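User: Hello, can you help with two protein structures?

Assistant: Certainly.
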Amino acid sequence: EFHFLVVDDESTDDSREILASYAPRVKSLLQARQGQAAAFNNGLAAATGDIVCLLDSDDVFLPGKLEAVMSAFKDPKVVCAQHFLNDTDAKLIPLPRRFPAWPARYTLDDYTAGRTEFTATSGLSFRRETLQKLLPIPKDLFYYLDDFLTAHALFFGEIANIPSVLGLHRMHGANWCAGGLEDPKKIERDFQDRALYYSYRERWLDEAGRSRSPEAVDAER
């Protein structure tokens, strides 16, 4: 059984009217403008399924995604599953993309050694019981919400890597993923959020008595 939950962070277009047209098949969580982190926190807290699949507003799931994800979670050691996303333009025309050579699984050892490559939000799924340990996402974090959840999940179990394109990641002039390296404001925000994310990561490592390898530190630098 599948449930659909959409969080609307006070849209200024006709999103709420469209959502109403799908009721009651789609549950809507309508909130006053609080930002992306609050949308994540409120939506994930309201989710009732055992497995939670994330989908950003501009993106698309492809046929076969849910079946592949559910199969990955048959192993109780898996707390998160990720799959490839194909970047596209506004009309969903694919853009050139390099995909990593993923192993079947990632563990915390892979992360501390700097061997992990993560997909974006719409390629991520989690056990709900794991998400309850990862939340809340800091309200000041805008970028790196996906990394915040994915990296933190490795402290509780393994990530299953599904080397298939099961979603489309739309990038166009009106969304935050487009032109990030050309916009000084986006670059500045990226550095601020990266520093905040790293501060939380160091806390997780300290609590687990772990540290990153010199190679991982050098690669990140």
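That covers the first. Now for the second protein you mentioned:
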Amino acid sequence: MRKILFQLVGLLVALVPICAFAASAQTPKDLPTLASVERQIKGGESQSFRIALTTNQFVYALVEQDDLDVVTSIYTPDGKQFTESDSPNDRWGSEPILFVAPVSGEYRVEVKSFEGQELRRYRIRMIALREATSIDKDHAAAQLAFNEATALTTKQNEPSLRAAIRKYEDAVPLFKTAGDTYRQALTFLSIG
């Protein structure tokens, strides 16, 4: 009996930190709203924002990197990763937050930094938040194709690289139509 009691106490002691962590985890409603803002971040950290959207709403924001390489990710209301953007611009330029909401709800946008220990600054600049036009949908499709192509290039084999080039080529005219010359140039760079 004593052995069982000690096992139960041990189990409770092990579960307390897990429960405390789960209770402290942020839900989308606890997060700051996605807006134009300037923040600091260290390597290994991530910062999240929320945005409430209705189906077919277009979101376009830029995360301006200043001697800091970040990756942006978007999570659907059910918590699944929808997109991840990591442009080949290293520590300068911008990473997009660019998509059309497939369903209504609270989305989470994450900005992650993987390098360095010193605090670095980044800025989020909101460009558009509106009902998606056909050009907006094509712009979001271009970014999605770009992200997929970038993921394919990490496989470093011929079939994946050829598939990546096709996706980049699909993205170029859509970026051009949207007037996104920066992303169009990054796409050409990636094809090269």
